[in-house]
Amino acid sequence: MISICNHMKNKKLSFILGFTSIIGQVLLLRELIAVFYGNETAYAVILASWLFWVSVGSYAASRILKKIKHPQIILSTSFWLISFILPITIFASRCIKQMMQIPIGEIIGILPMCLSSILLLAPLTLLLGAIFTLICQLAENKKEEGHESAEEISSIYLWESVGAIFGGLLFSFILIHFLPAMHTAFVIAGVNIFAVILIYGRNNIIFEPACALIFVIIVALFSGLVSRYDDYSRRLQWKGVDIVAIEDSIYGNIALIKREGQYSLFENGLHSFTTQDDLTSEESVHYALLSHPRPKDILLIGGGVAGGVAEILKYKETKVDYIELDPKVINLSRKYLPKKMTVSLDDKRVNVILGDARHLVKKTRKRYDAIIVALSDPYTALINRYYSWEFFKEAAGTLKPDGVLSLSVSSSENYLNDENRDFLRSINTTLKKHFKEVKSIPGDTNFFIACKKKNVISIDPDVLSARLKKRGIKTKYVREYYLPFKLSEGRMQYINEILQKEGQINTDTHPVGYLFDIVLWSTHFNAGFSHIVKMLRGITFTHLLFVPLVVLIVGWLLKRKSPSLPITLSIITTGFSEIIFQLIVIIAFQTLYGYAYYKIGFIMSSFMIGLAWGSYLAQKIILYQKDRIFLIYKRAQFGIVCYPCLLPVLFIVFRDIFSFAYLTWFFASAFALLPIIAGFLGGLQYPLATYLVSQRQENQKETTARTAGFLYAMDVLGASVGALVTGILLIPLLGINAVSYFCAILNLVVLLLLLNEK
Question: Which of 151, 167, 417, 660 could hold 23 in an S-S bridge, CB 3.0 to 4.6 Å?
Fold first, then answer.
């Protein structure tokens, strides 16, 4: 009976560990994405930092297990600490820019991003990594009670996965809609205090203080104390400006601030628009519409509240479809901005559409005279999807024969450095793949105007001035005295000479526009990263194959000294590959559907569903098929070789075939479930590897718990390296397809090493 109770206790503790890990990870991802301006590089840096410290915590705990006489004391202390650390970490994440003295609206550099992530996440994730190994040690102590250690550890891995599944789904479908991040953190704190009660039971001195603290948390949640704490942290995050409103949307964090009479809206920390910025509003609209002989039907993607819609309505014959993904952008603007700034949205000629612009452009039967992309630079894969080969193709199909596409990116008024030239050439060359005529208007913001026909676009200053006068358009800046300066012969000749050189094509699967923009942005902080990327840009897929070759040679030479080396290598490469699979799905989901921020918890839960499924099957194999364990392990490794080869194909299928107008939500959910397969393979391998390595240990003093902790650390360490290297460099440099095939070859090499083992 005692054995059964202890077994159930370990299951519950593992469940709480998984539950805490997934919700804590998603919470901090969402918080830090808002601080780090929403770029997918930030996803990689945060995940890499998280996984690195989990690995360190697990490994450190596995090394000191022999010295721990009462692991339950360390375990309970860890749960106590997590209950305090998670809310504090969220608070600290909101103060990062203030602590580093980074002004509001300024993008944080790569190096500060890495350092702040590593320091911020260390306390929480070290504890999470150590807890797994400590629970395994409690299971190891049951050997004398007739339990198989490997089975117990497999059960722990399984129930941690089940906890993560429950937490991820709970967050994605309930918590994200009803509880702010800080409130969710306090709920998780209460759950971890309950874990302490589970460890000691009711007949312990800890019971009453733990219950009292849970009661205090409940009172704080319902009395408004947590809300005030949350509000205080938000005001520190935006210190120095007048906060009008801050709200968490399912698509991100939205902040509306007021400074010197102007309102600015930030989405996930990235500047979206500033009101009364007449020059930006006028340039984004009038260059496109004046270049067209007679514009009537206009599609505006973003920028409407900032003044874009009002400028379009100055053309008496025009009708405008204005599209925004997040309803809260419109709702907050209507609620808090002066009426004169939003009155244009209520004009009978304006159709405000809430949804994904890529989906609209792909599916609409309407044809437009002009499509105006009024978004920020392609800092992220989300925005890069409006500057890609695929979008330009879709936009060309949505335009009338003489319709124009207009977009803009940051540039320089008088001199373009190498990074800026590469960036502009990439956009220009990509546009020319679908438009016969592409013209560029230089300046601090460079405007591209493209048309499927030649000799339709006119950017002659005299022609534009005449059309401005004939159409009765009243403007402050884009007018007869400004146009000759903006479109002067010398300026036009300079930009045209630069753009004559071919640039690299920007695609959904190979987002070089997002890479070039990262490099361009990094030059404002530290030229070192820019130089590194320049050196690495010469790397091809062939060069990358050097890595599997080294793994093959080293593994072949060392496996005689360590019989378990091929298995350990497979755990490392599996961890490395599976985080890459997750990043690929996140970036691909962002590109296909545009709201990975909303689905991040669901995508991670999908992986955990597969992990739990694989762990459950491994547990049964250890119990009933011991003679086939290594054979099944090798088959799982073969699955990891095959899975990445399917990802590029599935990306095309979901993009081009499974994109029906009324079933998009269904196929989006199906795509988010792809990590189940990767999770299943990883969940199957880890428990089997723990059993196999334990059986092959030359040092019989090595316990199964220590082996489990060590392999868990290696798995997570591989994932940490994979997240960092792939998210920052490999995907932007080589593209999703090349990275997928690289993973397949790397795992194939490890499979070859395993095939020669018995």
Answer: 167
Q: Are 85 and 169 in a shared domain?
A: yes
In a domain, 262, yes or no: no
Distance from C-alpha of 93 to C-alpha of 100, rounded to nearest angstrom: 11
The tokens of 509 are what?
């699967």
Look up the CATH number of the domain holding residue 654: 1.20.1250.20
Instruction: Give CA–CA dist 671/681, Å, rounded.
Output: 18
Question: 69 is in which domain, residue-wise?
Answer: 2-226+539-755
| 552 and 669 assigned to the same domain | yes
Closest CA to 741 of 515, 581, 566: 581
User: Does residue 348 lie within any of the structural domains?
Assistant: yes
Residues 481 and 333 in one domain: yes
Place of tokens 């409940």: 218
Give the 3-state secondary structure of 111-179: HHHHHHHHHHHHHHHHHHHHHHHHHHHHHHCCHHHCCCHHHHHHHHHHHHHHHHHHHHHHHHHHHHHHC
What whole-number distance in Å separates Cα of residue 182 and Cα of residue 231?
Answer: 10
Backbone angles phi, psi at 501, to 5 degrees: -75, 140
* 8 A C-beta contact, residue 384 and residue 421: no
- Rounded to two decimals, the pTM is 0.83
Q: What is the token pair recorded at 334?
A: 């209507």
Among 16, 17, 206, residue whose Cα is nearest residue 127:
17
The ranges of the chain with pLDDT < 70 are 1-7, 37-40, 65-69, 105-107, 139-151, 514, 517-536, 596-597, 658-663, 696-705, 757-758
β-strand partners of 447: 408, 441
Look-up: residue for tokens 């062939």? Answer: 542
Kindly report the three-state secondary structure assignment for every residue of 161-223.
HHHHHHHHHHHHHHHHHHCCHHHHHHHHHHHHHHHHHHHHCCCCCCHHHHHHHHHHHHHHHHH
pLDDT at residue number 435: 95
Q: Are strands 399-410 and 270-274 parallel, antiparallel or unpaired?
A: unpaired
Helices 629-656 and 565-593 sit at what angle, rounded to 10 degrees? Answer: 20
Q: 257 near 238, Cβ under 8 Å?
A: yes
- Cα separations (Å) of 714 from 58, 62, 418, 479? 9, 12, 41, 64
Helix (H) or strand (E) holding 30: helix 2-35
Based on the fold, state whether residues 314 and 216 are members of the same structural domain: no
Domain boundary among 473, 497, 522: 522
**Strands laid side by side in the 368-373 sheet:** 350-354, 319-324, 297-301, 368-373, 399-410, 445-451, 437-441
Q: What is the pLDDT of residue 208?
A: 86
C-beta of residue 98 within 8 angstroms of C-beta of residue 239 = yes
- We report the CATH number of the domain holding residue 491 as 3.40.50.150
Handedness of CA 493, 420, 325, 239 (dihedral sign): negative
- Residue 33 near residue 596 (C-beta atoms within 8 A): no
Q: How far apart are CA 134 and CA 436, in angstroms?
A: 65
